[in-house]
Amino acid sequence: MTESTVGQRAESMTNDQGGFPAQEQEPPGSTSAMDPVPDHGEETYKGSGKLEGLRALVTGGDSGIGRAVAIAFAREGADVALSYLPDEQEDAESTAELVRAAGRTAVLCPGDLTAEATCEQVVEKSVQELGGLDVLVNNAGAQWARDEGLEQMSSERMDRIFKTNLYALMWMTRAALPHLGKGASIINVSSIQAWEPSTTLLDYAATKAAINNFTVNLAAEVGPRGIRVNAVAPGPIWTPLQPATKPAEAMEEFGADTPLGRAGQPSEVAPAFVFLASPRDASYVSGTVLGVTGGKPVF
Ligand code: NAD
Ligand code: MG
């Protein structure tokens, strides 16, 4: 039997429309409740020492894109701290097991990052248990797409989306910076929504546009210290975030409107993070936003 490529595996997981069976979960969503369970590169990702000896903190590292990043980073030789919501303990332990199976250290940091003090505690715990910090991946994110328009949007929702996607990212980064030295890097998670916003994601899309601006500006601020700042902008990716925040039927055509005609799997996004984190491969790459969108433009 010939070995299938990651893309072939990803394609075989979608239906004729490029989407998935109708399904819904409550936030934050769990991996095992998904049909099909996403591909995080468990069977396919092969490391080659690109991140040997680095220490990384990945927010939202329990599931989805964060889990794929944790697996890839560990197989490339990095120790990984994972931050996640307390409700996601089961997903976080599965990811930690995969990191340890790669022979690396996994540190578990449960906590709600919409509180400033929690962000500081998560950074401190990671630094202490990893013995320092070289890469911060600001990947935690929240969205909600089951309401109808701005007039129905609660202030509680706006607060949660902006605090999770923007405030937490700034609090985490501010707490991490004193620990980052020359060659270290920060990778933020943007979205295709920054360029092509959906009306149902008005607040979420605005936070992602702000993250792009923040990325470029912070790169200018900390560049003189030898710290690189970049972002990855995913298109539609099959993760718990989707069934946990959108109507069930939206899953049936999820990703079908991309040039490649399907959603991506977390395993197809992780290599972009490995590249940006690598002090050798991406030594001159800072202030950029790398699209992994199935063909949609990010400029
Ligand atoms: P996911 O649900 O697997 O991951 C999001 C994670 O964010 C959760 O696992 C959770 O641990 C964390 N999180 C949410 N609120 C939090 C809080 N208050 N405190 C601490 N952690 C919190 O989904 P994902 O799709 O892998 O999302 C990862 C990132 O990718 C997000 O920033 C998301 O906006 C972005 N993104 C996703 C897609 C997609 O189609 N899946 C597309 C573009 C961008
Ligand atoms: Mg999760």
Automatic annotation (TrEMBL):
Stored InterPro entries: NAD(P)-bd_dom_sf, Sc_DH/Rdtase_CS, SDR_fam
Pfam family name, one: adh_short_C2
Region named Disordered: 1-48
UniProt entry tagged with the keyword Oxidoreductase: yes
Protein name: SDR family oxidoreductase
Keywords (A to Z) from UniProt: Oxidoreductase
Family: Belongs to the short-chain dehydrogenases/reductases (SDR) family.
Organism lineage: Bacteria, Bacillati, Actinomycetota, Actinomycetes, Micrococcales
Keyword Oxidoreductase part of the UniProt annotation: yes
Protein source organism: Ornithinimicrobium pratense
Composition bias type Polar residues, residue spans: 1-17
MF terms in GO: oxidoreductase activity, acting on CH-OH group of donors
Gene3D superfamilies: NAD(P)-binding Rossmann-like Domain
